[in-house]
Design brief:
379 residues; mainly alpha; two-stranded antiparallel sheet; 11 helices; 2 strands; 2% strand; membrane
């Protein structure tokens, strides 16, 4: 199935939740565009007047962002799995993967262990779903004290903004208090699904990375200077890393947006996810890049040695004219230089710096906000 078909997840999620909100009677704000304009002014600190505390579905901007980005993450996660499945066969077809005869049994066992892990993940789906529902339930229960609508709260003292936030929670379409039970159930189901996507995506990534860590001493990777894909035959790794980064970035945006409506006393529940993003994601990107770097280093060392031996044998002919010998020397230097420059650059340095910032900044910001909020609540 093409991954593009899974982009339908976005309108399905937005439309499905919107339909339930409409059934509940909390779909749109009765002031429509005027409220949206006031909210935008509030965000930039220029609101002309206080806004009301009614928050229907289409005014719940974090939830709209969460549903959109989660739908995109589902499509990208499927594409990740498809690329993972084709990764080793593609390298082997390109002549970039080699297993020494005495390592065949060990590499086969490592692959079998990896396949068992993936089968275990499938069988453990109910357990992951239960854990996701448990996290969502804890977050929803902690939300009873009133979510942090402070971004949209009108100017005023801390007590006034807190009172406004509490009233906003009462008027929120997914509030656990009042008549909004259908919205609360819907929000709980959506939160469970989002946590499930985050957990499942990272568990699969950890298993995939652990396989390459285990087979690092067994598999031999090469590069192909004559491959026309522009990356010495490693285009599939570039596609895989790019998709992994984009999907993980989208999921962390959804993750952060989901917790905007959660009060600070639930901050400890966000810490495991932040640890997952700090520890897991670097391994998804750094380990494959290190794998390619080692493959290139071994390739250059081997090819330079073989090239030098070949030219030395050619020059060993005593009948070789001096001009031809000089020509062979020049050819050897050119060939060795070409081998030394054979370094697949999957991403430009500027691209790496920008994308790393896009990922690191929200992670650090979320971590700092979580820690500070927890400390404030503790005191």
């Amino acid at each position: 199935m093409p991954a593009s078909l899974l982009l339908l997840t976005v309108p399905i999620l937005l439309g499905g939740v919107g339909l339930l909100a409409a059934v509940q009677g909390t779909l749109i704000h009765h002031h429509g565009g005027r409220t949206l304009h006031a909210d935008l002014l509030n965000v930039i600190g220029e609101a002309p007047a206080p806004t009301d505390t009614y928050f229907p579905y289409l005014r719940d901007y974090p939830t709209l962002v969460v549903l959109t980005f989660t739908g995109l993450t589902v499509a990208l996660a499927y594409r990740n799995c498809a690329l993972m499945e084709r990764f080793l066969p593609r390298l082997k077809a390109n002549g970039l993967l080699f297993v020494r005869p005495h390592d065949l049994d060990a590499s086969a066992r490592a692959l079998a262990r990896a396949n068992r892990r993936f089968r275990l993940i499938r069988r453990a789906r109910p357990l992951v779903m239960a854990a996701s529902a448990g996290v969502a339930a804890l977050l929803m229960l902690s939300g009873r004290t009133g979510p942090t609508f402070g971004t949209l709260a009108p100017a005023g003292s801390a007590a006034e903004r807190e009172a406004w936030s509490s009233q906003a929670y009462q008027g929120w379409w997914a509030s656990l208090t009042g008549p909004h039970w259908l919205g609360a159930v819907t929000y709980f189901a959506g939160a469970s699904f989002i946590v499930y996507v985050i957990l499942k995506h990272n568990i699969i990534g950890i298993c995939f990375v652990s396989f390459f860590a285990a087979t690092g001493p067994l598999l031999r990777y090469r590069v192909d200077r004559r491959n026309r894909d522009g990356y010495f035959g490693w285009l599939i790794m570039r596609d895989l890393l790019a998709t992994v980064f984009v999907s993980l970035t989208l999921s962390i945006v959804a993750f952060a947006s989901m917790f905007i409506l959660i009060p600070v006393n639930s901050a400890p529940w966000t810490l495991p996810f932040l640890v997952l993003y700090f520890v897991g994601v670097p391994s998804y990107v750094i380990l494959p890049m290190r794998l390619l770097e080692r493959a290139v280093d071994r390739y250059r060392q081997r090819e330079i040695t073989l090239t030098g031996d070949a030219f030395r044998r050619a020059r060993a002919d005593d009948t070789l004219p001096d001009a031809e010998r000089l020509n062979l020397n020049a050819l050897e230097r050119q060939e060795i230089l070409a081998i030394q420059q054979a370094r697949p650059q999957l991403f430009r340095g500027r691209t790496i710096a920008v994308t790393a910032s896009i990922y690191i900044i929200p992670v650090l910001t979320s971590t700092a906000q979580t820690v500070l909020s927890y400390l404030q609540v503790s005191h």
